Structures are given as C-alpha cells and as structure tokens.
Batch of 2 targets.
Target 1
Amino acid sequence: MNLTLKIWRQKDAKSKGGFETFKVEDVSPDTSFLEMLDILNNDLIHEGKEPIVFDHDCREGICGMCSLHINGFAHGPDTEITTCQLHMRKFKDGDTITIEPWRSSAFPVIKDLAVDRSAFDKILQAGGFVSVNTGGVPDANSIPIPKKDADESMDAAACIGCGACVATCKNGSAMLFVAARVSSLAKLPQGKVEGARRAKAMVAKMDELGFGSCTNTQACESQCPKLISISHIARLNREFLKAKFRD
Amino acid sequence: MGNFLTSSSIGKKFVMSISGCFLLLFLIFHMVMNATAVISPEAYNVICAFLGANWYAVAGTAVLALGVLVHFLYALILTFQNWKARGGVKRYAVTKKEDSVSWSSKNMFVLGCIIVVGLIVHLYNFWYNMMFVELVGQHQNAMGFAPTDGASLIMYHFASIVWVIVYLVWFVAIWFHLTHGMWSMMQTVGWNNKIWLKRLKVIANVLSTLIMLGFAVTVIVYYLKSVGFDFFGLISW
Ligand code: HEM
Ligand code: FES
C-alpha cells in the first residue's frame, strides 16, 4: 500500500505546531498502524530527520499507552480496539490519513503526537483506591459477593486508562474514566465503605484539572477499546449526588 | 451542600436536568391547554381568563421565566466550559460523528438557541398581547381583541402560512432537543442503567413526538380553518 500521511508536528509543549505531509510506500496491509509509523520513522532517521514522537508500550491492547486521533476517530476507524491493535487493512491503497494528537486542555501536547495524560494519575490519587490495613491474606470466600456485582465490577475494571473517552468527547470530559473507577470499587463490599468520599474526591479533582462535563452524547462509550458502558456514569452521578445531599 | 450546584460539574448538570424537567412538565401542560382550543375556542378562552393577570398566574409566569433563565444561563456556562475543556481554539482538524451518537446530543446548545429565539417571538406574539395588556391595565390589544380572547389571537397568527412555518420549525427544534434531553435528564440524576437506557430512549422519542404533534395539530387546524376547511363538520366551531 502507498499512503499519504498528514501528521501533526509540534516541537514542544509551548510551540504552535502544524501539519506535515509524508509518503510511505510498499506497506503491507498486515502491518499494524504503529509499525507503519515505525517504518516511516526509520526512513526519517536514515534521511537524518527527526522521527515522529508517539506513545506506545505493550502493543497488545492492555497498557493504554498508545493514543492518536486518526481520520477523525480516537484509536482510528475501528471499534473495540486500541491504536496498537489497528491494522493497515482498515485503509485503502492511496488513502490520505490525518493523524493528530488527542485534544483536551487537560491532556497538553508534549511533543508531536504525544500528550501528557498524568491528569488521570492525579484523579486516581485523589480517591481511586481502597484504604486497607494490609494484614494476612483473607480467605477468598470469607466475603461473599454476588456474581452479578462481581461481573459488573470487572466490566468497569477493564478500563485501561487510555483516555480515548476524553479524546473523543466534544466536552473533553473524563466522566467515563472516573465512572469506571468509581463503579468498579462501589460494586464490591471492600470499596463500598469509602464510596461517598471517593466519588466526591475524584469528581473534585477531575473538575480542578479542567475536564469538561458530561452531556451524555455516548461518544466515549462508542470509542472505548474496552466498551465501558455509560451506565457506570449513571452510577457515578448517583453516588456523587447522594453523597452531596447527605452532607 | 449548596455550592456544589454552582461549582461542580455534576452539580451543574443536576441543575440543567431539574430545570429541563420543569420546562418539560410545563410544555406538556401548555400542549394540553392548546389542544382544548382545537375542540372548543370558548373553553380555551375560559382557561385564558383563568390564567390572566391574577396573582397566581403572574407568579407562575415568574417561576417559569426563572426556570428558563436558569436553564439558559447554565447552558451558556457549561457549553463554554466544555468548549474550553476540549482544547478551546486548539481543536481537531478532522472530526467525524460516531454512528451510535445522536445528532441532537451534540447540538443541544444550538437547538436551545433556536428555542430561545422562537420563545422571544412567541412571547411577543401572545404573552405581550394577553397577560401584559392586562397587567398594564388595558382592555384591548393591538389587534383589537380582548386580552383573554386567546382563540382569536391564535386564529389571527395562524391564518398566515408564514407564522405556521415559523412555528413548525420551532417545534422541530424543540422535538430534537427533547429526544435527547428527556433521557439525558434521567441519566444525569443517576436514574439509568443498561436496561433502562433503551427504554428511556423509546419513552423520550414517543413522548417528544406526542408533545410536539399536539402543538403542531393546533397550529395546523387553525390554519386549515382559516382557509375554510371545516374537517367535514367534525370541528364545527
Ligand atoms: C422548551 C424549553 C426547553 C426544554 C423543555 C428543555 C429541556 C431540556 C432537558 C430535559 C435537558 C436534559 C438535561 C440533562 O441532560 O441533564 C436539557 C438539556 C440542555 N438544554 Fe434544554 N430545554 C429547553 C430549552 C433550552 C434552552 C432555551 C436552551 C438554551 C440554549 C437549552 C440548552 C440546553 C443545553 C445546552 C442542555 C445540555 C445538554 C446536556 O448537558 O446534556 N435548552 N434541556
Ligand atoms: S500500546 Fe499498550 S494498549 Fe496500545
């Protein structure tokens, strides 16, 4: 496949940045999207030019490091996948592909296509945990948990914190991420006890860091590689409002 | 507790939801009231007289105005904050609408602005010629009708095809706003889950359609009456 790539280049967080056009030739349809960028970077290095910076790590859809807004979609034009799981067979020979960094004021661009997602860590530090006294390991059956609750908690816990929800939301809202974390803990007896404090602390941090509010467009859910449902957002709203009205 | 309604994102959305729900309830009441004008203009005028410049009707109007104002102000604040959160002027060069995302949900503010413009025109057409005329102590509006003669005022406006079209466009905008708003307001207060989401969407679509059809029927019946169609004697006033 021969492709034209329009890629966002930006020297550092402060510079303005703009699109640069590149050609890649003879790419196999079985190449992954990130391998295609590797090939381009290899060429650039051979030509003595600076390679394009983009985030990645596991390349198997579990770490949440890869990002990229490709032809108008977070993680590219396919559903239920991360960018590292996207393959060139999703595109046609001769296509022009526009690759942009994720846009959200809480995710500033560091360089080229890499954005700073440490805002998510800060939200987790604010309340995405269970404060336990780590004693001996209790017997797994000592706390009975209904299957339905365990399943729902696990579904929410599938979130890999990639930030596609924020990137795709027209409001740059982190509600799906926060909801997944709040929900996965709220559904378990160990997490439930701190539910009110957690919801308030995480939402307060989310607001402070400049994420937007949720207008229930469902765009996040449609682009989430782990298909986290907005029903978790309903639970977060419920937990938060209940906690506030009780105060 | 109080300040989370002005400071936190979910608190602000809660205010949007409650004020939207209040406006929705008013809309249903207004639609039913209008529909009586189709059945009997006299009955409609009795309601108009009842809702004239009395303390309770004026108080109701004031509360309603407050509801619109709160909903509109919060819409302005939230929409601006959300625009900034997405990156302000640093936006994507290419965006596409995801298949599962409704058009209305992405255009609530634009739809709301159309609703406001329509509302101002509508208040001038009706409220200004009815309750306002009474409030300033006059007994006749510019068209020469008594301020409680709502039915004649409806006929006066909807004999004009231009007004008919303007109002129908307005109704379509409200319909779009409500198809999203009605389930969104439940989700915002937390009354939603995977099963109810589908049900709420159906309820939202059906109810918005019924409400807006109710309004449209009144307008269309009055227009057809004005051009002499008498519905085969079925609507025989
Ligand atoms: C006929 C009058 C109106 C009714 C019945 C109505 C109803 C609603 C409802 C039920 C919601 C859902 C609340 C939620 O998502 O929690 C909503 C949201 C909204 N409305 Fe209205 N509304 C009306 C007029 C307006 C006006 C005049 C504006 C002004 C621009 C406006 C702008 C918005 C916006 C921006 C949202 C937020 C969407 C969201 O956050 O999901 N609406 N409205
Ligand atoms: S690189 Fe780990 S999820 Fe894509």
Note: Residues A 56-59, 61-66, 82-84 surround FE2/S2 (inorganic) cluster (ligand 2) (CB under 6 Å).
Target 2
Amino acid sequence: MTFANSPQANQVSPSLQPKGWLRYLSFSLDHKVIGLQYLVCGFLFYLIGGALASAIRIELSSPISDFLARDVYNQVLTLHGTIMIFLWIVPVVNGAFGNYLIPFYVGARDMAFPRLNAVAFWLIPPAGLMLISSYFITGAAESGWTAYPPLSITTPAAGQIIWILSVLLLGGSSIFGGINFIATILKLRRPGLKLMQLPMYCWAMLGTSILVVLSTPVLAGTLILLSFDIVAHTGFFNPTLGGNVIVYQHLFWFYSHPAVYIMVLPAFGLVSEILPVHCRKPLFGYATMVYSIMAIVVLGLMVWAHHMFTSGTPPWMRLFFTIATSFIAVPTGIKFFNWVATLWGGRISLNSAVLFSCGFIVNFVLGGITGVALAQVPFDVHVHDTYFVVAHFHYIVYGGSVFVIFSSIYHWYPKFTGKMLNEHLGRFHFVLTFIGFNLCFAPQHWLGLNGMPRRVAEYDPQFAFVNQLSSVGALIMAISTLPFLWNVIQSAFNGDVAGDNPWQGLTPEWLTSSPPPVENWQGEAPLVTEPYGYGITNEELAVEPSINDDIQIPQDK
Amino acid sequence: MTILLCIALVLGGTWVGQHVNLLPISASSNAPVYDELFRVLLSIGTILFVGMLGLVIYSLIKFRRRPGQTGDGLAIEGNLPLEIFWTAVPAIVILFVGLYSYDIYDRMGGMQPLQHGEHGHQKMSTNQRIWGGIGSGTVSQAESKSNNPLPVEVTAMQFAFLFHYPKGNIISGELHVPTGQQVSMKMESKDVIHAFWVPEFRLKQDIIPGQPTVLNFTPTKPGRYPIVCAELCGPYHGGMRSAVVVEEPAEYESWYSKNSKEIISEA
Ligand code: HEM
Ligand SMILES: [Cu+2]
Ligand SMILES: [Cu+2]
C-alpha cells in the first residue's frame, strides 16, 4: 500500500469506519479513500499488464515464435489489452481521480451515493483476480480484447466465459461510477456554484459519464449474447447457425469507440487542472473547452464503424464514418490549442507534473494525426490491423492517458499524503519514460506501413531489427517505473512535509489540510467561483483556506 | 520572423512528404493513388506535429519560471478571434483532407457498385449480400488490356489461403496473376474471420464466414509479394501467409496452360 501511512484522519469522524491504513482495505464510504483504493489497485494491475507487455516484446524480439507457445502468446495478448483498458486506465482516470476530486470541486462532502461508490470499487479486485486466475486454471481467453466471433466461439470456452464475466463486472462497476458522477456533479453542487464555474475536470467527467451510461450497457448486452452462443449454442453471432458476425462488430465498437474517449476525456480534464496551477495563468478559453468536450461526446457516439472499414461495410457507410471521424479532430484540436495558449505567457515551473502534461500534448498530437489519417478509408485499407494501428492507439492511450496519470500523481500526491515527491527522481522518471515510449512505439508506424500485421507471434525476418529497437524501448519503459515506485514509496515516509497548498492552487481541494479530513472541510465548504483566477491583475484571493497551516513552497530551486 | 518560420515549416513538411519514403514498392494500379494520398497526409501531419512540438518547447523555454521569480503569469482567459481562428483552420484542413480522400477513394473505385467476375457470367443468388473492398475502379478499368476481369475464388481457413480459378479449374496455394489484367476475387471463409492483405497492392479485405466479400485489383509490377492474413484467427495467425506471383502475360499463360484441367476451348 503506497499511501498507507497517511496520518490519522481527524477525530470528529462520527462513522464506524476503520481508521489509519486499515481503512484502505475496508468497505470505506469516504470518497477519498475510495479514490486512492482505485489508484493503488489500478497501479498494481498496471504492473501485471506491464509484465505481460514485456513478455510480448520479448517474443517479438525474434521473428520466430520461440519464447511463448502460440496459444499462450494469444492469451498474454488478450490479458494485456483487457487489463490495461478495463483494470488500469478506465478505473484510474475515472474512478481514482474522479472520486477523489469531484466532491471537492462541486463543494460536497462526499459522492451522491457513497455505498454504490464502494460497491463499484469492490467489484474491481475480484473481477481482475478472476480474469488473471483464468490463465492458471483453465487458460485465459485468446481471441484478443475485441473477442470477435466466430474466433471467440471456437477457442476454448472456459477462458472466454471467464473473460466475459469479468468484463461484465468491470462494466457494471463503470456504470455505477458513471451514475454517481452525473448525480454528484448535477445535484450536489454547493449552493451558489454555477455549472460554468466548475473546474474543467467536472465537465470532462460529466461528458465521460454520459458516454459510460449510454454505451457500456450495449457492451454488456453484446457479451451476454456472445456467452449464450458459447454455452447454450445459440446462433446470434455464429455463421454456421445463421448468425451474423458483423453485427457483433457493430455492437462491440458502439461501446468500444466511446471507450477510447472514456479513457482520454478525463485525462483532458486532469491536464486542464494541472497546467493553470503550474503556469500561474487562467485556463485559456474555458467556454470553448466545455463546448468541445460536449461536441466530442456527441460525435464520439457516431464514429464506431471506422474500426470496420475492411470488414463487411458498404461504401456509403465507409464514407459516412470517414467524415464523422475526421470531424472529431476539430473539437480535439481546439483543446490542444487552448492548452498551448495556457502555457503562453505563463510563469511555468518545469516540474515533473508539467513535463508529463507537456509530454502528453506532444504524444497525443502525433496520435491524433495518425488517427485522422486512419479515418480516411483509402488510407485505412492498407494499414488496418497492422502495427500502424498499434502505434496509433499506444500514442493515445499510453502517450496520452498514462502520461496524464503520472502527471496527476506528481500534482496531487502532496494532497493525498501530505508529503512532497522528490523532484529529481520525478524528472528522471519523465525522461526515461518519454525516451522509452517513443523508441518503443514510433518505429511501429513503419512496421505497419511495410507489412507487419498486429497480433502475431512470428513475422517476416526483414522486420527483426525494427522490432528489436521497439523492444529496447519497452525495456526502458519497464525500467522507468523503478524510480517512480521508489519515489512514491519512500516519499510517503521521508518526503518533505507538503503543507496544505504547496502549489498555491485555487481549486477547492487545496483549500483544506493535506491529507484532507473525513468530510473534506472543517467548516463550511468554500465557494470557489473562479477556479482559475491566477494572473498578475489579481488583487486579493477571493477565498480563504479553511485551515491555515504554514504554507511552504517546496520547489527545489 | 514568425512568418518566415511558418513558411519554413510548410516547405519543410512538404519536402518531407515528398521525399521520405515509408512505404514498400507499389505493384498494383491503385498503389500509386494510395501513395499520393499518403504523401499529402504525411506533409500535413509533419507540419502540424512539428508546429505543435515547436510551440510547446518554445513556451516551456521562454515562459519558464526563472530562479527568484515570483508572481503569476498574464491573466488572459481567452481571445475570441483567436479561438475562432483555430477552430476554422483545423475545420478547413479536415474538409480538404476529407474531400481529397473522397476523390482518392473514388479513383480507387470505392464508390462503384461491386461486381464479381464477368458481367452476367457469375450469377449471385440475390438474397446474398456481397460486400467488398475497393479496387474495381475506373483506373484499373482503363488500364486493363481486356475489359473482362479474371475471376478467382478465394477460400480462407485456419491457417491457409486457397485460390480457385473457375476458368481452368485450377486450385493453387499461391495466387498467380498477369500484369495489367484486372483480377476479381470472391472470398469466403470456412471457419473464422481472416483478411487478405498484400502490402505492395495497398489493399486489404476481411474474409468473413457466412458472407462472401469481393476484392478487385489490377497488378502492375511483376514480382513475388506476400499475402498476409491480417485478422487474428488463432494460434498460427502469424504464420498464415501465402504469396501472390505477378507475371508478364506470356509467363502467366504458360503457368495457366500447364495447370489447367480444362481443354482450353472458350475464348
Ligand atoms: C483525433 C481523434 C482520433 C481519430 C480520428 C481516431 C481514429 C481511429 C481509427 C480510424 C481507428 C481504426 C484503425 C483501424 O483499426 O484500422 C482507430 C483505432 C484506435 N484508436 Fe483512435 N482515433 C482518435 C483518437 C483516439 C483516442 C482519443 C483513443 C483513446 C484514448 C484512440 C484509441 C484507439 C484504439 C484503442 C484503437 C484500436 C482499437 C483496436 O483495434 O484494438 N483513438 N482510431
Ligand atoms: Cu475508434
Ligand atoms: Cu489470421
């Protein structure tokens, strides 16, 4: 438990919840405890998913299938994708930071439905353990994270069924979380706080939660039908019984394209919180940011078939989805220009949080450019299902979401624990991650363009060198977690004391002690109507911290 | 200064697009069309990426907090004309890319109704929906020496491709095709979804059980190119490969007559 030694919560807590580090293992109803539970649990799964990724890259450092048995390779591949998406990124960018921050941002003492919240979290560890144990007991699913039938119907049934069950549990957890966020943001706002005064992360989570609530049930229904096909031999997706395999793809991507926004919209929100604090500037273009989030939500629901351009897709459909997908780049582009404008003219502290956020901007721009290219049918028919696509989405989900998760940990760790992280180790972590990541994934664009399909254990020997390059990058990425882990663990015990507001932030989570008391504020919740009111024209801060401890500035320069 | 930098950026990006070759050789009539699109996208992409990268790095250096500095940055909350500007620019770029790729798509024959085989020769049962890839386009039509496409029936199974030439009743594990001749493939899968991909042709189409798909193309350059299965189909997916042999028409004829099980009677 990385965050285990937080000092005792304040004494007035009337609840029967356990105190001290034990509450992190309990059915706690405190949104901050649940948030950290999500974060630590997600990170443990990230380590497992990372180990699986290493196994994949070891296998691919030689063109023949020599490290893992072929079916084991496909199991590893399936587990890697499923764990990274459903047990790491989705729970962390939504569950962890959402639970920790949203009640602060709306001025509430907890989420709208604390019990549902705890249930949502406690669905995750059993689902994850079930998924992983299937590898040891029956053999895991081996049809990829997309589980396309008829392959998923014909591969060993036990592993596939366990996969479906755990994804259903995780989907359920995600829906509970989504309902809770919508209710909290819309209904628990402190009186006097207007929607357009909320910090941007609230808008991002509102949009994301709408996507979760609208699309996840479709995935659940689809997977239930798929499980009928497997255990009861129905024929929804089984062509030998008259079923249609293309229908599955439409239903699957109706969830799974929005799912990519479920992984990245909250990250957009987090960056919008982090940059203004460290640049000492207001977030540029608040209103356009809000509108572009909502535009992404609407457009994101109608672009799914861009994953099916080479499948059974008629020409008009290809054209429609090309156009719809291309236009998602417009609201996305606006957000990036706004962030750069937020940097412009600031007083930027070049700390780990800012470096990771800027790394995110750079990586995501590249991923977005390849995304727009992939949206063009004639371009996509060549590179679909190749390493080019692998490179595209890792630039988005790793270069985007994972970079933002690290940035957020550097930014909020002082709030979580009351201790500062070591800046030198943090910057070292950033440099290693950035180099390793780009070395691992940039060459994969070339591989895909030149003929290497994805999800293979063996390949044409002409690609050996570039694959080895990519594997070296993966090795550097693996090593880069070590300084991070050391930093997080050792700072919890020996880090400098952070004080309530080490970054001089204006958003409400900084206006209380670090770590905050059980119901967030000792007295009244502060009314923060200008969460980004930085800037030299500012006279006096409109808000007062609820507890005035000494405020230190622990920047090490 | 800024204008000079912008011009340099645009020129540099265009140069990269024209001169950096990231693609394998092109061996079908729609490959050069594809490469044209690729070059344009690479130019635009390079300009945007280098531009954004430059802006981020420049801001981080120029506006970094120097030792001893305190206080905040400028309190700029927005700038409507600027925001309209950078909504409009991506919108225009996207519109251009969209229209251009539609044009490419059309030139590749993506918008044409799909036909397989010679007109009227191959009757499909009408309740079967045929979906397919692009490549039946006008370009290939104009270039092909005869207007009658060569029909081939492709069967995919775990983990191989089989090619059946209905005309000579040839069954082959490799695809032999003559240059300059339009080939029309009807593809069906016996078990799970596979995909037919020839990187040098820039073409890919899934092969779907229970639902035939069609892929048309015209090879242009003699050689031996890999056929790669691009859809996860089981443990040996990575080994599911074959080859397409593109030959000069004369060579192809001799291969054909050697393997044909039919007395060549019809013209
Ligand atoms: C600028 C916006 C984006 C566009 C235009 C775009 C476009 C595309 C297209 C067309 C594909 C299909 C490629 C193929 O399979 O042939 C694709 C795949 C993918 N994209 Fe994006 N994308 C964008 C942003 C994102 C974001 C924000 C994420 C996630 C956070 C993401 C994650 C993925 C994933 C995971 C896949 C591969 C799914 C799979 O086949 O396993 N993309 N993208
Ligand atoms: Cu998508
Ligand atoms: Cu395959």
Note: The pocket of copper (II) ion (ligand 3) is lined by residues B 194, 229, 231, 233, 237, 240 (CB under 6 Å).
